[in-house]
Task: inverse folding
């Protein structure tokens, strides 16, 4: 167990080295969500409840940033599979589970940096900052990022250096996941089939909880469902990811 | 380091590996029986696709054998994976150091993976950086290093924990001739200093010849020769290549040369190849004899036997020609790299 912890920390620290050294890369990685924010925010209608539309939209963009960042991360592993450094790590005494878990845990760091940037960008506008809620939401999103990151690594391992396979599957899943989670548009009044997909998408609950928390409210059921949704993604992701890493050669 | 072990560094018994892709089975390694003693410096020599990397991948626990067994530093490569990994260093065909990382960070992280304390890992990284002449580049991003620098860094990574057995897969591929020679000297020096067992693969004859005390020639997944380079070559004679003014002169000379005892004569157009033991000593006599016969050669070359000649003698194919076989298709290369 102690070797697992030491190995996991070793892998995580190694993965974080480029993040600390080149923090701007973290900003570039979130260009797309920022563009969405800049383009969509002015188009948003005022909410029926009278609240700022930004208040509704920003949590979705935050969740989108987390999903995008973590789902891209497998490409780094693919690069390492191609260059040979993944092979070198497989021959080292580092345990297979640590090679996956350490990588997945690392996803939390760039995600938190990105959330901080988004919050800093929108706070001067009509966005009410509820710091406690944002921090609680960051915890839910951390769990979610770990899970999505693990799934992305599993996909990279399964693609075995065939980049097109990784990108096709990642891109094919990304936008349906975002849309059916109600990130960009509310799911109210969606046709029934879409509503069913939305209820099955664990990210839906994550987004709902993040919205509530960003608004400074703590509805126990919504928050619990959000944590559960993120936990489901994390458990499935880590399980699939560790399995894939054990089979990697 | 775990228990000290006194037997051979590597033992394989019927070590076999098949790959099945698209319903086709490739018998990459077929029944390898080997024993490599502690402290040996051994080269696996063979053309592309001979099964060298597959053998190394089994010995380094990356892939399990289809059948047969292997033990490295006293530990079984299947049931004792963790112990094997602790004991060995591995420099693969690619780059062990991550391209987005700094060289020094990678060395430290590798040391930590092998259980060194933080302080020891830093100290060891510093030693290796100095020893392998990497001071100028150790704190740069790996992607910015030249091929030769990256290869030295890879080797440093493989040496962090003073492995008892060091595996190097095609260590000098992609290097220019000068860097290749530097690398060979480095490997020899490390071998002499550490006394580790070193196993490398190569498809460069010169490399196997220059480096290794023992050359294991592999072809189609089997060992076809296993001896010192000198002894492998001593069985073959020198090559005396004679050029003539015309094909008819060549043919006439060939007829006369066929009387040289224990020799082989090959004629192609205006050139006659005579392969005979101690050919370099008897070349004067041969020339005088041909001149007396009215067919003096216009050109003469004498070459000592090479490992290529050994390979040709064993397989009927030239190792150099074999290099020119078509490369596997792109997807095959990718899956190989990733595998
Ligand atoms: N992962 C793999 N899947 C299918 N075939 C493979 C794989 N790895 C190696 N092979 C095949 O096994 C044979 C030996 O390959 P390899 O050990 O890489 O040779 P070498 O290193 O001597 O060039 C080749 O025919 C190669 O195409
Ligand atoms: Mg090879």
Result:
């Amino acid at each position: 167990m102690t070797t697992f912890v030491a190995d996991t920390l070793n892998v995580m620290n190694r993965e974080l080295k480029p993040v600390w050294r080149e923090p701007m890369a973290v900003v570039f990685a979130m260009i797309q969500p920022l563009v969405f924010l800049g383009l969509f925010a002015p188009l948003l209608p005022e909410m029926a409840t009278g609240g700022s539309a930004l208040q509704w939209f920003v949590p979705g963009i935050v969740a989108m940033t987390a999903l995008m960042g973590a789902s891209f991360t497998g490409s780094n592993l693919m690069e390492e599979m191609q260059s040979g450094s993944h092979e070198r790590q497989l021959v080292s005494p580092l345990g297979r589970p640590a090679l996956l878990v350490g990588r997945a845990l690392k996803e939390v760091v760039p995600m938190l940096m990105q959330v901080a940037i988004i919050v800093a960008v929108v706070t001067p506008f009509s966005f009410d900052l509820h710091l406690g809620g944002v921090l609680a939401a960051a915890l839910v999103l951390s769990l979610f990022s770990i899970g999505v990151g693990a799934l992305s690594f599993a996909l990279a391992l399964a693609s075995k250096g065939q980049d097109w396979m990784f990108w096709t599957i990642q891109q094919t899943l990304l936008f349906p996941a975002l849309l059916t989670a109600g990130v960009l548009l509310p799911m109210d009044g969606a046709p029934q089939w879409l509503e069913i997909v939305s209820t099955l998408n664990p990210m839906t609950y994550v987004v709902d909880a993040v919205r509530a928390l960003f608004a400074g409210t703590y509805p126990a059921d919504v928050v619990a469902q959000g944590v559960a949704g993120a936990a489901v993604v994390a458990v499935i992701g880590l399980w699939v990811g560790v399995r894939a890493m054990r089979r990697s050669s | 380091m775990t228990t000290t072990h006194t037997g051979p560094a590597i033992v394989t018994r019927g070590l076999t590996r098949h790959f099945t892709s698209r319903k086709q089975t490739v018998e990459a390694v077929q029944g390898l029986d080997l024993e490599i003693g502690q402290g040996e410096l051994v080269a696996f020599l063979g053309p592309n696709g001979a099964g060298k990397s597959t053998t190394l991948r089994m010995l380094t626990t990356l892939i399990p054998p289809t059948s047969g067994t292997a033990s490295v530093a006293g530990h079984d490569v299947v049931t004792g994976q963790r112990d094997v990994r602790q004991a060995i260093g591995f420099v693969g065909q690619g780059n062990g150091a991550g391209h987005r990382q700094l060289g020094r960070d990678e060395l430290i992280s590798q040391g930590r993976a092998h259980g060194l304390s933080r302080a020891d890992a830093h100290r060891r990284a510093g030693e290796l950086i100095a020893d392998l002449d990497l001071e100028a580049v150790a704190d740069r991003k790996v992607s910015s290093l030249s091929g030769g620098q990256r290869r030295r860094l890879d080797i440093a990574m493989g040496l962090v924990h003073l492995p008892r057995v060091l595996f190097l897969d095609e260590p000098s591929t992609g290097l220019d001739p000068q860097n290749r020679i530097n690398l060979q000297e480095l490997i020899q020096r490390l071998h002499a200093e550490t006394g580790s067992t070193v196993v490398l693969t190569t498809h460069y004859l010169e490399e196997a010849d220059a480096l290794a005390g023992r050359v294991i020639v592999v072809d189609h997944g089997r060992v076809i020769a296993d001896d010192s380079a000198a002894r492998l070559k001593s069985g073959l004679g020198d090559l005396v290549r004679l050029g003539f003014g015309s094909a008819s002169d060549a043919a006439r000379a060939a007829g006369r040369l066929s009387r040289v005892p224990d020799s082989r004569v090959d004629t192609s157009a205006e050139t006659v190849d005579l392969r005979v033991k101690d050919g370099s000593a008897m070349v004067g006599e041969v020339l005088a004899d041909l001149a007396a016969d009215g067919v003096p050669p216009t050109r003469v070359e004498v070459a000592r036997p090479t490992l290529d000649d050994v390979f040709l003698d064993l397989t009927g194919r030239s190792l150099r020609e074999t290099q020119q076989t078509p490369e596997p298709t792109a997807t095959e290369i990718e899956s190989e790299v990733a595998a």
Notes: Chain B has two domains: 10-233, 237-304. Residues 10-233 of chain B form a domain with the Rossmann fold fold (CATH 3.40.50.300).
